[in-house]
Amino acid sequence: MQGADEQRVAEIERYRILDDNAPRRDLLALVEVAAEVARVPMATINLITDAEQHQVAAVGFDAAVCRREDSMCNAVLHDGRPVVVPDASLDERFRDNPFVTGAIGDVRFYATHQLVTPNGIVIGTLCVFDTVPRQLTDDQERAIVALADRVVDLLELELRTRELGATVSQLERARAELQRSNEQLAAFAGQVSHDLLNPLTAVTMSLRLVGEQLEEPTSLDPSQLGWLVTRAVSGAHRMESLIEDLLSFARLGGRLVRAEVDLGAVLAEVSEDLAVALTDASLTAGALPVVSGDPVQLRAVVQNLIANAAKFVQPGVAPKIEVSAAPVAGGWRIEVADHGIGISPEHRERVFEPLARIDQSIAGCGIGLATVRRVIDSHGGRIGLAETPGGGTTAWFELPG
Predict the structure, then answer these.
(1) What is the structure's pLDDT at 179?
(2) In this predicted model, what pLDDT tens digit does every residue of 48-72 receive, in sequence order?
(3) How many domains does the chain have?
(4) For the chain, which ranges sit under pLDDT 70?
(5) Domain coverage including residue 122
(6) How many beta carbons lie within 10 A of that of residue 203, not counting itself?
(7) DSSP string, 47-84
(8) Does one domain contain both 17 and 157?
(9) Taking the model in full, what pTM does it have?
(10) Could you tell me if residue 290 is left (phi over 0), alpha (psi between -120 and 50 degrees) or otherwise beta?
């Protein structure tokens, strides 16, 4: 019987009706119909757990909770058929029950039918009663049985509605996640192109110069030719490494792969990749720290900030870029300062939005700073823009130690 109790309690919990603070109007309507059909003053819907009887809807008296052993319905819970008792005081099953003796009530007439769920589990009863003896006709008895079935139908309807609502919510969350994923995929694809373009430019320029030298054999400078080939091969290796790292990053679903990252070494590699963009630039850097983070993602941060500093300059003015680092509480603050056209304060937050472009005259797709912020956020850091003393923009980010 313990197994049956556990099943019944679990089934009742599925319907969540005991969580309601007030009786449900649809169930109240059914017990009112049951009392009218039986022509009695009182009716109730009982749910019976392993320890208690809960009157979840009642007419003719105030619904309450009692001990299961005091329940009249508990005695016939598993009879599997309607129970009709003309006078409970004369029935040996009920004559000593507190609902009959006057301790709790003065029931005489009592009729009940079990509430059986589609899983075949009895969770309670629909019962009607009176304080005087009486009988039910066959039609009234059939009506009580039908009403008991409707009680279960209502419970099932509410359950299915709730489950459907949960499914719809899950689908909405999945749709939102898919949309977010698609947006990230588009940004990621753009970032791949963005990050590969710089080393590709360096390779192309080196090979073009090699070609020019080969077209004029008399002016060949073996040392310079070797340097150009070495530079092209180095750029190609960086592209290969970047592609492998980006594909690895994509396969990992954007999870951080933490390692010790030497930002000084990263800046040196980025400077070589951006050699064309930095041709006329003045790039100075102080000592940069070794931090804990994802090497691929932090490299993208440095490359984007240096590329932006070299790009957003006044026409005809050579870029001047200064990179510095300073310890802060719990980590490091890295600054990339330029002396270019600057960004007005009202735009310093908007430029971190995907596809945001403040100056349409300068080539770009508007994903660089959005990617940088996403990377810094994922590392638990902060990022922002400030004005460089004397004019220009200082991009800064902080990483935990």
Answers:
(1) 80
(2) 999 999 999 999 999 999 999 999 9
(3) 2
(4) 1-2, 181-198, 217-221, 238, 241-255, 354-368
(5) 2-167
(6) 20
(7) EE-SSEEEEEEEESS---EEEGGG-TGGGGTT--S-EE
(8) yes
(9) 0.51
(10) beta
Query: Does 270 lie in the same domain as 156?
Result: no
- Is residue 207 assigned to a domain? no
The structure tokens listed for 376 are 């810094």
Cβ-based burial of 195 (10 A; exposed 0-12, middle 13-18, buried ≥19): buried
Note every long-range contact of 314-319, with CB atoms under 8 Å and residues 24 or more positions apart, other chains counting.
314/340, 314/341, 318/280, 318/281, 318/282, 319/278, 319/280, 319/281, 319/282, 319/283
d(CA 31, CA 34) in angstroms, rounded, equals: 5
Ranges of H-type helices in 216-284: 222-251, 263-273
Q: What is the layout of strands, in order, in the sheet containing 52-59?
A: 65-67, 52-59, 42-48, 122-130, 109-116, 83-85
Do β-strands 290-293 and 259-262 pair in parallel, antiparallel, or remain unpaired?
Answer: antiparallel
Task: Give yes or no: residues 163 and 260 share one domain.
Answer: no
The answer on 277 and 152 residing in a single domain is no
Return the pLDDT at 235.
Answer: 74
Report the candidate in 352, 349, 351, 319 with the shortest Cα–Cα distance to residue 336. Answer: 319
Q: What CA–CA distance (Å, rounded) separates 159 from 148?
A: 17
Closest CA to 5 of 40, 52, 72, 46: 52
Q: Looking at the structure, tell me whether residues 28 and 149 fall in a common domain.
A: yes
Question: For 195-210, what is the HEC assignment?
Answer: HHHHHHHHHHHHHHHH
Where a domain ends, among 144, 167, 190? 167
Structure tokens at 264: 């000084």
Residues 6+ apart with CB under 8 A from 215: none
Rounded to whole angstroms, the Cα distance separating 389 from 309 reads 15
Q: Buried b vs exposed e over 142-175: b needs ≥16 C-beta within 10 Å? A: ebbeebbebbbebbeebeeeeeeeeeeeeeeeee
Maximal C-alpha separation, the chain: 127
Residues whose CB falls within 8 Å of the CB of residue 4, separated by 6 or more in sequence, listed in order: 78, 121
Give the domain CATH number at 25: 3.30.450.40
Q: Residue 155, CB half-sphere, CA atoms under 13 Å: how many?
A: 28
Q: Is 101 left (phi over 0), alpha (psi -120 to 50) or beta?
A: alpha
End residue of a domain, out of 116, 138, 167? 167
The three-point CA angle 286-290-291 to 5° equals 120
On whether residue 209 sits in a domain, the answer given is no
Structural domain contains residue 185: no
Residue 53 lies in a domain: yes
